Amino acid sequence: MLKTRVIMTAALALATLAHAEVRIGVVVSSTGPAASLGIPEKNTVALLPQTIGGQKITYIILDDASDTTTAVTNTRKLIQDSKVDLILGTTTTPASLAMIDVAAESKTPMISLAASEGIIKPVDAKKTWVFKTPQTDAIMAAAIIDHMAKNGVKTLGYIGFNDAYGEGWYNEIKKYADQKNIRIMVNERYGRSDSSVTGQALKLVAAKPDAVLIGASGVPAVLPQKTLNDRGYKGKVYQTHGVANADFLRVGGKDVEGAILPVGPVLVADQLPATNPTRKVGLDYMNSYEAKYGKGTVSGFGGHMWDASLILKKAIPAALKKAKPGTAEFRSALRDAIEGTKNVIGTHGIFNFSSTDHLGLDARSRVMVQVVNGDWKLLK
Hints:
Distance between the termini: 76 Å
Strand order of the largest sheet: 2-3-1-4-5-6
Largest sheet: 6 strands, mixed
Shape: globular
Helix content: 40-55%
Structural class: alpha/beta
Order of helices and strands: HEHEEHEHEEHEHEHEHEHEHHHEEEE
Number of strands: 15
Number of helices: 12
Oligomer: single chain
Radius of gyration: 22 Å
């Protein structure tokens, strides 16, 4: 009799831990310097499925205000108080890197929406819980250097954020530049909230490189290009995929005309050839987003959130076969299911995860574009 009571008590405790829905905690930068990236990510959540595999999905969204400490606090709150099964976010590289420890400690799978390769590599004991959907700086840096080499660039100037994003981009661009014998002449940094980069721009202009790469994201990436223009720089200006949103075009205006950058295919889905496998998925997302938020509002950043949902559409049903939401067993099963996900055609590319690759994208996840007449033009 006593044994029966013990078994019943244990079963009741387990049932209490589980819940009848999959809870997804979302951390994005919907305010602060990275808001132009985080707002389309937040907006996209409203378009995500409310049920997957017959299970209700609840999204709990918190704003980190583009602040690393707040992102970590939000992650702890979602895991400890809201008992989420998975974390989606956050928008920026520094904050995503800081969130990894929290996800690993609690053994909660996390899908980052930030770019740096350092978020997922190497896949060690901590990063085994972390995945991401944006193309890495390495994938995009290779595309930039390839374009430079084909267009006669021999010397390069660099100005980037004075944080993990800017440093990660410099390291990757230098690696590929060395392979193509492109010499980096100037290496400068600035803060995301800085109002002037005149000193850095003067050094770049004085060096007269064939091209300048701006290793920044969102609206703050406008400042260096505008300052270079004002100081008479006539070379090519490259940006990263971190600027691939309508706010960059709106705020930059004529100051960002001619910028060249790699982007996910979704940003120019309507310009892709019919044979491109991501065209249909990209157009579906574009049409859904613009139907709700207005024509011309779609961005690559919201596409990263959409792609995370497409991955979860495959992974959640697999995890549900092994455990109930709200339990450690389900979180572990969900992590395993994400890692085993193959051939998910997203807005940015085709995802094939593995135990050593927690991004799963290849060269099909990038195209080169140029800002022409205030819009994105696919470069052939």
